[in-house]
TrEMBL record:
It comes from the Bacteria. InterPro entries: Bact_response_regulator, CheY-like_superfamily, Sig_transdc_resp-reg_receiver. PROSITE patterns: RESPONSE_REGULATORY (PS50110). One of its GO terms (biological process) is phosphorelay signal transduction system. It comes from Pseudooceanicola albus. Pfam families: Response_reg. The lineage of its organism: Bacteria, Pseudomonadati, Pseudomonadota, Alphaproteobacteria, Rhodobacterales. Residues 3-135 form the Response regulatory domain. Keywords: Phosphoprotein. This is Response regulator. The modification 4-aspartylphosphate is found at residue 52.
């Protein structure tokens, strides 16, 4: 069983993804924003982080949330009692439909430190395969 941090601002998506992950016996902590995810990652040692790249901030869809979390996990200061290891595996997801920004942000996420990038909606089998691949490594 792994402890997984999931950053997803859409409640329905967060619940669905959490249930899919927990079905395999993993423990999931959900964060709805980069600030909340960073605070949790600073206080708890996670085995894996799954982040949505686009989050709502004051009603506007922006791409900085997931990238900010990835940047913190790879480069940020860790001051919490059980700080997250820099090597924590990261899955970055994007659910933007159409346009060049979807692939663009997924590539940026990979460049900045995500281990795997997935386009939403993610089939449960694909999500499980990505999780299994990162946890065994």
């Amino acid at each position: 069983m792994a402890r997984i941090l999931l950053m997803e601002d859409e409640v329905d998506q967060a619940v669905m993804l959490s249930l899919i992950i927990e079905k395999r016996g993993h423990q999931v902590d959900i964060a709805a924003s980069a600030d909340e995810a960073i605070a949790k990652a600073d206080a708890t040692a996670y085995d894996l982080v799954i982040t949505d790249l686009f989050v709502q901030q004051k009603g506007v869809q922006v791409g900085s949330g997931g990238l900010r979390l990835i940047g913190f996990l790879r480069n940020g200061t860790r001051t919490g009692p059980v700080a997250t290891e820099r090597s924590v595996p990261i899955i970055a997801m994007s659910g933007v439909l159409g346009g060049p920004s979807e692939g663009h942000f997924l590539k940026i996420a990979e460049t900045t430190g995500a281990n795997i990038r997935l386009e939403k909606p993610v089939p449960p089998q694909k999500l499980h395969a990505a999780i299994d691949d990162l946890l065994k490594g």
